[in-house]
Design brief:
By secondary structure, the protein is of the alpha/beta class. The chain is built from 10 helices and 13 strands. The protein has a 7-stranded mixed sheet with strand order 4-3-2-5-6-13-12, with helices on both faces. A 4-stranded mixed sheet has the order 1-11-8-7. The longest helix has 16 residues. The structure holds N,N-dimethyl-L-histidine.
């Protein structure tokens, strides 16, 4: 895989198969607790289903974070100040990104995303909304340090990572990402990051297992994608969506549970599952004020400010990349 402007990030074999997808699926299905990384949810159908999830009555994070960005824009702007290059980790949402950009008078906007087509489409929509703002999309894997465009090199930076996407990573990966963000943005940079909060288990379970079954479709779509792209014959109807609360790690887990004994093949390899066995497809960690601060600190970021929505369901944190201290 290569990174950088204009280079292809998805490696495909002679038959057009995404080799990283195949490697992750085959390795994950061979594990005792079968697991597929959540990033593979987002093909076209999966991305559309995720958009639908954000509109569900049970799925509060998007509304809660938007409420914070709208209601606290003056305070957020005062702490961030004008003239920063906003570097968004991901293509940007059509609602949250404009709210931030109109609040803080930035001097440039740099969205980073591995999915080039999506990046280009959302960047031009945003450039049309903010005609005076220079937009420099960069097609890159932001899990590693990214070379930012020369045009923003001298500008102070603000990283933006909304949605509690950090919660989809285990602590080690989340720490690595925060460190990479620090390397990408440089010392003195600020980071505005969304982190979903620990709350009543029933509220959390409903958010990940909605009455209309959209989250179930989102989860099951992964099997449809595997069948289509990796020559699989998984009997999708033989699996059920399940959301579980893991109290040890304070996270919602999504699983696809076999409703009967099943055997299937993917890319020519055979697998079998007994009734009740599952494929673990996602973690969504939930934070407290302290665990959020601890994670930020582990990644080299000092917490500066924190806002929550009126029902204290979701938090938005502002942190600063300070030089490491050698003593307490
Ligand atoms: C993208 N991410 C922050 C979502 C979450 O809440 O963990 C993905 C999601 N999975 C099921 N519903 C939403």
């Amino acid at each position: 895989m290569t990174t950088g402007k204009g280079l292809k990030l998805v490696e495909r074999d002679a038959r057009g198969v995404d080799t990283a997808f195949r490697a992750d699926v085959l390795a994950g299905l061979a594990e005792e607790q079968k697991a597929v990384p959540a990033r593979w949810f987002y093909d076209d159908a999966g991305s559309r289903l995720f958009e639908d999830i954000t509109q569900l009555p049970e799925y509060y994070p998007t509304r809660a974070e938007t409420e914070i960005l709208r209601g606290r824009s003056a305070q957020i702007a005062e702490l961030i100040g004008p003239g920063r290059a906003v570097v968004e980790f991901g293509s940007g949402s059509s609602v949250k990104t404009p709210l931030l950009l109109s609040a803080i008078e930035p001097s440039a906007y740099v969205p980073l995303d591995i999915a080039g087509d999506f990046l280009r489409a959302s960047s031009s929509a945003l450039a049309a909304k903010f005609p005076g703002l220079p937009v420099y999309p960069v097609e890159a894997d932001f899990m590693r340090r990214v070379e930012l465009p020369a045009e923003v090199a001298a500008l102070p930076k603000l990283g933006f990572f909304p949605g509690s996407t950090i919660g989809n990573m285990i602590a080690r990966t989340a720490t690595d990402l925060l460190r990479s963000m620090r390397e990408t943005l440089g010392e003195g940079a600020l980071l505005l990051i969304g982190m979903d909060l620990v709350k009543d288990k029933q509220v959390l379970l409903a958010a990940y297992d909605d009455a209309a079954g959209v989250t179930a479709q989102f989860n099951l779509n992964l099997l449809t994608r595997i069948n289509r792209e990796l020559a699989g014959d998984i009997p999708v109807d033989a699996f059920a969506h399940e959301a579980r609360w893991n109290d040890t790690y304070a996270r919602i887990e999504m699983h696809l549970v076999a409703r009967q004994d099943v055997s299937f093949s993917v890319s020519g390899q055979s697998f079998a599952m007994a009734v009740g066995e599952s494929i673990h497809t996602e973690n969504s960690h939930k934070f407290t004020r302290r665990t959020a601060n601890m994670l930020l600190a582990a990644g080299g970021w000092e917490p500066r400010a924190r806002w929550t929505d009126s029902e204290e369901r979701f938090s938005l944190l502002l942190a600063e990349a300070r030089p490491p201290r050698s003593a307490p």
